[in-house]
Amino acid sequence: xxxxxxxxxxxxxxxxxxxxxxxxxxxxxxxxxxxxxxxxxxxxxxxxxxxxxxxxxxxxxxxxxxxxxxxxxxxxxxxxxxxxxxxxxxxxxxxxxxxxxxxxxxxxxxxxxxxxxxxxxxxxxxxxxxxxxxxxxxxxxxxxxxxxxxxxxxxxxxxxxxxxxxxxxxxxxxxxxxxxxxxxxxxxxxxxxxxxxxxxx
Length: 201
Known about the structure:
This protein is an alpha+beta fold and about 200 residues long. Helix content is about 35%, strand content about 15%.
């Protein structure tokens, strides 16, 4: 499994980085071994409460947030689609303040961010993105229900060695109900799911 995911190799190893060509696929894999073109922008972005998402993901996000609010929980769609250039700026700022090694734990390099797909959303209560989100009722609700809307929590605490990113309880990725249900039921990362069920690599 680990070899097929490629984590026996260094993250961002230029010899094995794959350039993504099927950019509109809902099941696209974007990580430290798979890179989007710098020019890529999803063709069907919609506005969801001030952020942009691919239409299918955005409509499901609206359903999910409405359900949370109906259960009395405040939730904010904080960050959805980001362009290559926006991600480049975010990443470079992290490098400037923390250095490359620490920046790589918390921020994707340009072309390697799920946000560029329009399928990822950062959720918040108060406009901040902190690990303490994982201690909230909102996170508890999402942990129990996000998969019903096709979303998975992408960077879990116990799978940092696979994803290469620190724990991000606020970062959710749309993969559709069927895939999200399997990932939830089997406690898989998205990489593990793709290896196990889609013959990744």
